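Q: I have 155 residues here and want to know how they pack in 3D. Can you give me a structure?
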Amino acid sequence: IATRAEVSRGTVYLHFKNKAEVLLGVVERLDAQGSPTLYADLCHLDGETELTAFFGRVITMWNRVSVPLRLARQIAGGDPAVADWLAAAEVKHADAIEETLLAHGVAAERARPRAIALMAMYSGLSEQVAGDRLQTQPEKLARELAVLYQAAIGL
């Protein structure tokens, strides 16, 4: 990172305490680039074709963040700040998914449990395929995610 930024390692560590903070900085930046409009787009989609295209964009974002995020999760076991950041990020995404489900007409008492279930399914699916289908079969994976979402909103 220091070489690519054309700065010394010491300069990097003036801004970050350790490697974990560097990784979180990368993940935060990538997440900020992709997430703000991601869920807003989802509110306006219906049908498997539109949802599959949407999840294709999600997969593109996952491809950008998968390596630093996986490394951050590995570090999380030894660094409470990383574990806290990851937990807060999951809550933020679950909140956004819940708002999207509500916008799709899912009853308020069902939106949060469905959002949490979707987060768990997406996380589990992305972890299983991170090294394989995310790269080699993104279209098939996008269709599977569209089907999961349609089941969550009751289509």
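Q: Anything worth noting?
A: The radius of gyration is 17 Å. The CA atoms of residues 25 and 134 lie 23 Å apart.
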